[in-house]
């Protein structure tokens, strides 16, 4: 009995560490972008693909994660995911140019995408039901800590060692994780396995990739308008074909019937458009601070702390606000506050003090965290047992997709404003960044039209633990 309890605790720490390195790597790169760009001989304004491909790869792999774990076993898949993550990290550190780094980030993203869903599945199959909520709450903590220390750690490693170490630190952690997973994790393949919807998956993945590439095509690949138009049309056609296919398939990846739940539909679409704007901030802010304000990587990382701390601090207030005011009032009001907090960077000047920017980031972090938690609980709270798994998976996919597309949109907008205002003088660059912040803030503001469709009575009671859903 004591041995089983020990194994359960080790499994909890193992899954938590896997989640930690995955979330850490989503943010640790942001403050290192100028240093990486200088080392690879490219412009820091052209480095968004390093962030985008990692998030997009995770969005593509997540829908298949459950079936992969059932097919090959949770232990084997978790070990394989950690191994892929370590190999990708090693390739990232060894990259000699931007193309090599992008390809290595794809490998890293393939491993990272499986760590949380497969780890969560391992807990579901190993931890008693009455202890599962507590176990998931424990595993969720590193998901808050990773983004908190990622920018600071990335900046510190760049200054004290080199940018290569933001990837090399994953290697010992991964090797230890693989060793412990081999000993303490269980999970044999299922004897009876449902058929995987390979056609639907191919259509969905192709649609996500081509549509995301269309947003980033001119900036990263030099594709002109005709190519961008073709990518957009192919992406939309593929996504449309998926939903036609799903309506005619007995067991699709995501059934169109899932959208008969109004709160899920509004929560997913609101997530997409709200994150499309706000997810650009962790990319834009460190770049703005280093390129225009003369901050070092470590200083830029420290400046991101108020945003993360405020995000964690406000979480306990979220269920109270929703219970008192309802989802409609909270989301419509808070969406405007998030958008205005982003637009406040319109007034940024090169001479602004650090505490002025800290206050802006503090407010943005608080409002943004409230937004994420409210949107996520809204999307999941009314799911029936039939759609719990697919609804949760779709939400994770939409979040990763929106984060990647948000960075692409921000980079494209920054390029357009740089071309418009010029980049020869610091004031021109500041004007380009300020305009980009406003543009992305307006994108977030647009999602308020989606939340406007909520009914007043939606979400009077909060059923879910907000700490699990960000």
From TrEMBL:
GO terms for cellular component: plasma membrane. Gene3D superfamilies: MFS general substrate transporter like domains, Multidrug resistance protein D. The keyword Transport applies. PROSITE patterns: MFS. Keywords: Cell membrane, Membrane, Transmembrane, Transmembrane helix, Transport. The chain crosses the membrane at residues 49-69, 76-96, 102-123, 135-157, 163-184, 196-215, 227-246, 258-278, 298-318, 325-347, 353-374, 395-417, 429-452. The keyword Ribosomal protein does not apply. It comes from Leptospira semungkisensis. Residues 11-459 form the Major facilitator superfamily (MFS) profile domain. GO terms for molecular function: transmembrane transporter activity. It comes from the Bacteria. NCBIfam families: efflux_EmrB (TIGR00711), PRK10504.1 (NF007799). Coiled coil: none annotated. This is DHA2 family efflux MFS transporter permease subunit. It is a multi-pass membrane protein. It is found in: Cell membrane. Its main location: membrane.
């Amino acid at each position: 009995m004591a041995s089983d309890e020990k194994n359960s605790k080790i499994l909890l720490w193992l899954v938590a560490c896997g989640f930690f390195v995955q979330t850490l790597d989503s943010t640790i790169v942001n403050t290192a972008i100028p240093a990486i760009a200088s080392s690879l001989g490219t412009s820091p304004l052209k480095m968004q693909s390093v962030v985008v491909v990692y998030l997009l790869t995770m969005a593509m792999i997540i829908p298949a994660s459950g079936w992969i774990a059932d097919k090959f076993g949770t232990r084997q898949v978790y070990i394989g995911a950690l191994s892929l993550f370590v190999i990708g990290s090693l390739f990232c550190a060894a990259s000699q140019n931007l193309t090599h780094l992008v390809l290595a980030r794809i490998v890293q993203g393939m491993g990272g995408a499986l760590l949380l869903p497969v780890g969560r599945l391992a807990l579901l199959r190993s931890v008693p039901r009455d202890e599962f909520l507590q176990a998931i709450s424990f595993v969720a903590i590193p998901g808050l800590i990773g983004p908190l220390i990622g920018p600071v750690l990335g900046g510190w490693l760049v200054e004290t060692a080199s940018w290569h170490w933001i990837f090399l630190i994953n290697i010992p952690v991964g090797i230890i994780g693989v060793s412990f997973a081999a000993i303490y994790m269980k999970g044999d393949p299922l004897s009876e396995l449902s058929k995987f919807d390979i056609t639907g998956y191919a259509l969905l993945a192709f649609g996500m990739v081509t549509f995301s590439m269309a947003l980033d095509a001119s900036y990263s690949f030099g594709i002109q308008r005709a190519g961008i138009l073709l990518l957009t049309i192919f992406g939309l056609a593929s996504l449309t074909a998926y939903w036609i296919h799903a309506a005619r398939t007995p067991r699709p990846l995501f059934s169109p019937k899932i959208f008969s739940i109004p709160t899920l539909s509004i929560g997913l679409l609101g997530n997409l458009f709200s994150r499309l704007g706000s997810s650009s901030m962790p990319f834009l802010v460190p770049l703005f601070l280093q390129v225009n304000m003369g901050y070092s990587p470590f200083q830029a990382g420290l400046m991101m702390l108020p945003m993360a701390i405020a995000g964690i601090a406000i979480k306990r207030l979220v269920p109270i606000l929703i219970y008192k005011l309802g989802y409609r009032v909270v989301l419509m009001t808070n969406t405007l506050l998030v958008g205005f907090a982003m637009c406040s960077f319109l007034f940024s000047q090169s001479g602004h003090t650090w505490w002025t920017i800290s206050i802006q980031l503090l407010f943005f972090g608080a409002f943004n965290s409230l937004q994420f938690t409210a949107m996520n609980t809204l999307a999941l709270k009314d799911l029936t047992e039939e759609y719990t798994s697919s609804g949760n998976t779709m939400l994770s996919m939409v979040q990763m997709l929106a984060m990647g597309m948000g960075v692409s949109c921000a980079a494209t907008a920054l390029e357009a404003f740089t071309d418009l205002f010029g980049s020869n003088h610091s004031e021109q660059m500041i004007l380009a960044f300020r305009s980009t912040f406003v543009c992305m803030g307006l994108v977030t503001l647009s999602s308020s039209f989606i939340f406007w469709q909520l009914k007043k009575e939606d979400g009077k009671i909060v059923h879910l633990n907000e700490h699990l859903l960000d």
